[in-house]
Prior knowledge:
The structure holds three protein chains of three kinds.
Chain A: H1 26-31, H2 36-42, H3 46-55, H4 68-73, E1 84-89, H5 98-105, H6 107-121, E2 125-130, H7 135-150, E3 166-171, H8 181-188, E4 212-216, H9 217-229, H10 231-237, E5 245-252, E6 258-263, E7 266-267, H11 268-275, E8 285-289, E9 298-299, E10 306-307, H12 309-314, E11 323-328, H13 333-347, H14 353-370, H15 376-389, H16 397-411, H17 413-418, E12 424-426, E13 433-435
Parallel strand pairs in A: 1-2, 1-4, 2-3, 5-11
Antiparallel strand pairs in A: 5-6, 7-10, 8-9, 8-11, 12-13
Chain B: H1 5-15, H2 27-38, H3 43-53, H4 57-66, E1 78-83, H5 86-90, H6 93-104, E2 110-111, E3 117-122, E4 134-136, E5 139-141, H7 146-159
Parallel strand pairs in B: 1-3
Antiparallel strand pairs in B: 1-4, 2-3, 4-5
Helix pairs in contact in B: 1-2, 2-3, 3-4
Chain C: E1 4-9, E2 12-17, H1 22-28, E3 52-55, E4 62-63, E5 74-76, H2 80-95, H3 111-119, E6 136-137, E7 142-144, H4 154-162, E8 168-171, E9 178-181, H5 194-198, E10 204-206, E11 219-224, E12 233-239, E13 242-247, H6 261-265, E14 280-283, E15 286-289, H7 292-308, E16 313-316, H8 323-337, E17 342-343, H9 350-357, H10 369-372, E18 375-379, H11 383-386, H12 388-401, E19 404-409, E20 421-424, H13 430-436, H14 438-442, E21 447-451, H15 458-469, E22 474-478, H16 485-490, H17 511-516, E23 522-526, E24 542-547, H18 552-556, E25 559-562, E26 571-574, E27 580-583, H19 595-605, H20 615-625, H21 633-637, H22 671-675, H23 678-682
Parallel strand pairs in C: 1-5, 16-17, 16-23, 18-19, 18-21, 19-20, 21-22, 23-24, 24-25
Antiparallel strand pairs in C: 1-2, 3-4, 3-5, 6-7, 7-10, 8-9, 11-12, 12-13, 14-15, 14-25, 26-27
Amino acid sequence: MLYNQPSPHETRVLTRRFGLPNSASIDTYLASDGYKAFLKAMQMAPDEIVGEVKTSALRGRGGAGFPTGMKWSFVPRNSPKPKYIVVNADESEPATCKDRVLMEEDPHGLIEGTMIAARAIGSEKGYIYIRGEYRYLIDHMDRAIDEAYARGWLGKNIQGTGMNFDLSTHTGAGAYECGEESALLESLEGKRGNPRLKPPFPATHGVYQCPTVVNNVETFYAVPHIINMGGQAFADLGTPKNGGTRMFCLSGHINNPGVFELKMGANLLWMIDAVGGGLRSGRKLKAVIPGGSSCPILRADECDLAMDYDTVAKAGSMLGSGGVVIMDDTTDMVAVGLRIMSFYAHESCGWCIPCREGTTWLKKMLWRMNNGEGRKQDIDLINELSKNMLGRTFCALGDAAAMPTISLVEKFRDEFEAKVRPVMVPVSGPDQLVAIS
Amino acid sequence: MNFSPALEARISKILGNYPEDRKRSAVIPLLLFIQDEVGAVTKEVVDEVSHRTGTPRVQVDEVVGFYSMLHRKPIGKYHVQVCTNVSCMLVGGTELYHHAAKKLGIGHKETAADGVFSLEEVECMGACSWAPAVQINYDFHHKVTPEKLDQLLDSLRKIQ
Amino acid sequence: MSQTVNITINGRQTQVPQGTLIIEAAKAMGIEVPAFCYYEGYSLQAACRMCLVEVEKMPKLQPGCTLTANEGMVIHTESPNVVAARKGTLEFLLSNHPLDCPVCDKGGECELQDMVFRYGAGESRHVENKVHTPEKQWSPVVFYDAPRCILCYRCVRVCDEGLGVGALGVSNRGVISEIVPNGEDHLKCDECGACIDICPVGALTSGSYRYQTRPWEMTHVGTVCTHCGDGCKTTLGVKNNEIMRGNNRDRSGINGEFLCIKGRYAFDFTSHNERLQAPLVRVNGKLEPVSWSEALATVAAKFKEVKAAGGRFGVIGSTRTTNEENFFLQKFARTGLGTNNIDHHRSGDLATLLDALSGRENALASVADLYTAKGALIVGADLSQQHPLIAFQLRANFRHHAAKLFTVTPGPVREDEIALAAVRAQAGGELQAIEGLREKLAAAGDLTILFGDAIKGEAVRKLVAFGDSLGIPVRYVCLLDNSNSRGAVDMGLLPDLGPGFKAVEKPGLAAPEMLADAKLDVLWLVGANPLKSATLANAGAFVVVQDLFLTETAQRADVVLPAASAYEKNGTVTNTCGEVQKLKPAIRTMGAKADLEIIGLIAREMGINAGIWTPDKVFAEIQQTVRGYNVPAAVLTAGAAALTMPVNGRVASQARPELIRSAGDTLFTSGSLGRYSKVLNSVMESPGGLFRHERE
Lengths: 437, 160, 696
């Protein structure tokens, strides 16, 4: 069941089966060119597959935007160890809800994507790491996997091609940090979701210290289409170095929020107006988080831009995970800052000092500020403490907490100043300061 | 510990997903699925998972403490999880949470005395485009208004 | 050999092997890169972010503890960026750290205090409430105060990687992360206290030391642990003539900073309230306190009388008294009393091993060798229980050098977990089991064979023959029970061997034979307690006991002379590997005298000139008599250990394998000393027992 109506502005590549009757069944899948790309890939040399993915200019859809073909090419060809495919379905970047829809509507598309990746790197085992909150999707994917086994699309000697590939689901249990690929691998090994030291990277030392390709769900979905339509045709859908389409999750103060597949490089304002139905009740745009809550916020006047990795980066933010949060002029930016920091404080794994201590300290300060107990010097301190985390933490979670906060303080300083109270002394209440006068 | 045949089958399947010497991988799935049946990750559950996966107890304990969906104490029959993260917050998630708290008479991570409902203010659960969202146990409810939530909770109370 | 690369740190060039950690490269140049979580020898964490350094051409600051040296790297450890980052990290760290330094045990020797002093800000900008949780007691030994914990994970690693126990973990996440014990709310572990010692702050504190003193109020005395035969150096913190703590933070000695519960906490017997502080003489069937002169006169009179009458003496020495004392005791017994009825509790067949090796060089392994050996075969010993330092060395060797370990034991031992092969063999079946490992053992490259009391007599010769047949260099360690069990053998506390394994013309009686001798006139026990498990055949024998406590044997004595413990005297002891080390007195116990002095005084009282009885003079005599003890004085004075082959040729020993039996002490027992240690008794409920290892 689709949660929102498709938009006529969509370019339906990954979502081409959305809305088909029984879209999740293997029969529907096979009837709509399903598993064709896999058979085609079996006719290609592994290097050819990697080459095609490189040509497609597909970049990781989880948030970092690393070129997928390049990532695959780092896997050693002649490793004596088994190689693994891991699907990162731990979709937990706030404002992101695309992988869920993809898996729900078209589970076999994901299976086929992993099979082609397995063929490309020479893997015989894959895991789909699904966040625990998506419990229904574990059952859903398990059903699809069972179907694929029953019809000979998984297991030994798949369709007589001689290829063996096993796939199973694996569940998380509530931890944002497990979306970070090395933390995900730790979690997959039954440990706390602390990130790993890098290098070595998963391509050489992944699951069980074996070569592993970890990609986001959407990234795997693109693969069969790249094989079917050719890497160049996929690349041509987007902008240079930003191939294909992208699942955008529009949320916030718009009339028609939803998940939409749009061409990479679509204009953000167009996205808000044409696809998202514009701002609700005629309000004015104030700001946009372009790619999940860890991205620096864009002011309304910065939003006339193409939504691809490079253009958004140039504008000082990130395309991230495709979670676009649209905020109108009623939005309280200090409250947004507090909510974002509360999230990161809750999700910090605690491994390194700056993130563990910094996120909580900042949360407390932002709480005071949001509750009218801020001091004037707190504004600069929030900025400075954020910068003390930035680039110094073990993994990117510290950056993810720092970047939006810095952007909020710097772009909406007046809102912070408006919440400052004149003279303050700390008292020993719960997280509170009380004014003398 | 003895579990239902369905859970036992699931456990065997999960244990079969990992290499022979890597059964520790099954720790988190086992904890979650056993919690679903037992109601909480009790000391006995930790021991059982430790035993079945050949993982030292303290390493299982470490995991229980890390993941927010694992609970050491029983939660309500219906665990009401209201998202207040940014996308939901912008369209009334926070108000919805406070509404739920008031209606159920319990706060964050609290369970009502009769054990029917428990409440949790949760982080983003991937329903941002259909916000505000509530998850009751594992069921998603999208675009939830206070009125819709009332109806939902009332109907659950009736069938329990 | 790895390639050498040129790097520049703070403008100074240096050459290091490629892959050297920057933090180590800097240290070698005398440049400190501060760190909490980095700890040499344990896995890398990069968690504390204190060691961030600036590397030219790298956009972000890099952790010096994981960054490896590559050709041409230019590093700055004191650039404005680095200085600011450290300051910022310390500010974060202090945001939830309680500033209870005035009452914190770690105050004055706290790494966090030192770091803030050197690198931190002078003022605090944190005005929020701090996270607080109550302190927890995890065992009689270990307390944990979560708010003080900086989560450097040193304790978790030392316990898991170092000890192989893995009793600690991390629970919760984010700012409320904390260390947790394996038993839910308590520890099931070795209680070694390594976690406490390695803690950079006051988060882990010990039951015995906490809130007792300030570090600067103590004097520190480096001596050798008096318990098992491994010979760990323990540095005793002393205040007002009382031992407050034991540790070895300066890593001096053969054990580095390793200590087990005994070395770290079981010094407490010294101040036990049953400690003997006055000589006792039996008057009308009851032991009554008397003056030293009266007690010595009583002993001397009896000894003279029996000697004059040509009566029979029996002398049993100790496995904890010093070499000097043992040497002097046997010398006085043989020449002064005219008897060869001298013995001690024998726990391993060293004499047969040395005979089988016949003076071969490089055939005995030192404690340090155990860290570098390519292969090690453990026969009939539960090292983690009986020889914790040796177990620690082998584990470190496995971790750092992938040493190949083999265990041949009657039951499971902890070393099985890291062994290439673990074989169960009951008494008598060991050699056959070892034969089954022949190919694997020979493939190790070199081998150290460690054996306990299961291998004795002919079995020792067969073991050496087996070693010879492998075609690789093989070294041996004959495992012995106590701190100076080895020295007792070397010094000739034996009826058939004198000092340096020289055969005695007319061998005397062994200890059990003395006890069983119905005609024995005098039994003189220096630190031995044989009547705990045996009876004295001649009820009328005159019994003299030198000991710390009124042991079962002392209760039967006619005269009891209060002896000083190893922590109260000078002298040397020899560990199970043969390494000679020096004791240093930490405290004095009123009324007690060192055994050496007691023996000397008895001799003087008897009018016998037994020579000067200061430890230095006696040691000089030992050096001339016993080959292995001719170690340079400088080595000993520095507190280092030395090992050489103690005998150059064959040993004409009677072997007597039936008399060789380990006392079977575990980690939490230590003969009669252990009974007077409150710490050891308090942890008795913890899993003990030999060859019964089970992972928690």
